[in-house]
Fold these 2 entries.
Entry 1:
Amino acid sequence: MGTTLAEKVWADHLVRQGQNGEPDLIYIDLQLMHEVTSPQAFEGLRLAGRQLRHTELTIATEDHNTPTINIDRPNPDETSATQLSTLERNCKEFGVRLHPLGDADQGIVHAFAPILGLTQPGMTIVCGDSHTSTHGAFGALAFGIGTSEVEHVMATQTLSLKPFKTMAINIEGELAPGTTAKDIILAIIAKIGTGGGQGYVLEYRGEAIRKLSMDARMTICNMSIEAGARAGMIAPDETTFEYIKGRPHAPTGELWDQAVAYWKTLRTDDDAVFDAEVTLHADELQPYVTWGTNPGQGLPITASVPEPESFSDATARTAAQNALTYMGLEPGTKIKDIAVDTVFIGSCTNGRIEDLRAAAEIMRGHHKADSIHRVLVVPASSRVRLQAEAEGLDQVFKDFGAEWRNAGCSMCLGMNPDKLVPGERCISTSNRNFEGRQGKGGRTHLASPLVAAATAIRGTISSPADL
Ligand SMILES: CC(C)[C@H](C(=O)O)[C@@H](O)C(=O)O
Ligand code: SF4
């Protein structure tokens, strides 16, 4: 019997196979790092008097606690300032490469690495961050780990793990205009639920996936964790190789040819069997928007806020009831009738250059609705910011009445000054709509950059087709 892509990458990194139900020992090719989940790991190494096993295989950036304006001034938040200075001190002491705030390669951990060509097919990549699944878009086995595991990887370059189960997610057909990778993943999570992927590596396959750019594939893999999965992967193909070629860390010359030859073997065999399989038809998809407080509580934009009684499952019913109370929504309200205060375009889900281009395309020649309080456009990495500025997108955003910011996690989560105030309603291109996620009492509707941009023009949740 053949094997799946995930199983191939796993097998190629097996240091020692676990006996009698014990976990396997897996080699880790790359560890990415940020300020939030690294301090205790460094402290652990320090206390044990250890060094990194492979200093060159851990690379850090600053993203969660960084402000996105006045970055040359002292951080206004003391805790954030301490987090950042601690990372800087730790990286210096242990010799870890760091892209700090102000560096041209600084950015959200899941955005800066692919841009540098650090993320490559067939690698095992870890980070103390759940959205590490993003890197699976390249056919890497990439997943979030806890702080003690971060320390373990630093010390040994390995991890002790039980193999993941495999799930195929087939996306057949083609996306209609106005629908995007974000709608695919929101629809998947709405279908399988926030626990549907638990224990699995998801492999996204099918015609719609093959046609997606790398930026779009990253959007999909990014949110695998929101379905509860350990990781998400897409088999590498010409689109992948084309993206990597010529990037600073991409192999060159003969090594490039060897790499591509290996990467081409990284696909699920025709006779391989997945532990589970789900199919979705891209051509039937509409733009998706969440109405609740978990990423699975999403619906097509033309739907109405559901009645909690419509859920047959008691837990789902209570969850819907609580979500509606928190979100300040009445059942039966058309999603398109919901007025928002704030628009956030950014994050490791949708802050890449193609997302900004798509948003700018819609905003060009328009101005934000008067009822919209603020529109934040935040590039996922400093390279994306530079690229956008070279293309004049920053001017389009500014003319529109949006704020053009420096790179970072920004309003994706309330760990930096970009926060919602209680009751503020936001349409956001990020990946989590949990209570308080974007600031205490803030209300989040997840959507694509196209929907966010159209909403900024009309003031109520809208798709480009409504313009
Ligand atoms: C802070 C970090 C550990 C966290 C994560 O693991 O994902 C954050 O990035 C998030 O998106 O909630
Ligand atoms: S942008 Fe959001 S989801 Fe991504 S790493 Fe930052 S906080 Fe986490």
Entry 2:
Amino acid sequence: MAADVIALHDLVFRHPGNHHPTLAIPELRIGAGQRVALIGTSGAGKSTLLRLLDGRLRGWSGSCAVLGRPLDPDSPPPRLWRRSVGFVFQEFALVERETVRQNVLNGRLGHADALWSLTGRFGAPDHAAADRAIQDVGLDEFAKRRVDRLSGGQRQRVAIARCLAQEPRIVLADEPISSLDPVTAHTVLDLLRNSAVDRRATLVISSHQPQLVAGYVDRFIALDRGRIVFDGPPNAIDETQLSGIYGETA
Ligand SMILES: Nc1ncnc2c1ncn2[C@@H]1O[C@H](COP(=O)(O)OP(=O)(O)OP(=O)(O)O)[C@@H](O)[C@H]1O
């Protein structure tokens, strides 16, 4: 069995001032190379869990190890760890006035060496990784175009390419398809799955749309008010369970 790249134990997190925990997870393990969808209604805690795994959440209790490193609830993880964990933000978080290529190169900042510190220029390995990522997401012809002149689906692909250029061992994607039409959503999910498989990366995506993501992952983890209420293969969840998680909207 694949080694765990994510291991949580007795994890509890409460937003300051909130009585109920935002996350309460007694145990969660995710193996290397798994593809997981975090599902659940708005406010279930999906983004908070992704922020925890990305090392950006402070003030939790219990233990959380990612890529073998126990995270510290009181301080951010080191740069070397950070570059192994890629994050695709819901709102893309791109530099709008920069080109596709420059945005993707920004994903290499965690790898940048002395040359970058001295000159602000990226080295050959950084350019090669950026080119490969741009090619993988099918944006070659747009490489020199400014991001603010792209469609939503194209921007999402730039955000994914930036994450891939980082050469992460884990890809975390927060609602990567929420603002896309169904056809573009499938293209983006295909990209995320294929690039994770090619790079042997672990993929964790959050989504409100279990039916749409089911074909792209091998595991559903459903959250309800911060608790795991289902954990298994997508084909093992039935309509009644989905209705329980989503109410009338399933
Ligand atoms: N800064 C904050 N302060 C207090 N409560 C917060 C804060 N951010 C989020 N919450 C609460 O934490 C809970 C979990 O939010 P989270 O964003 O993780 O849910 P989610 O499942 O990702 O929702 P969505 O699908 O809408 O993005 C919600 O009840 C939310 O209101």
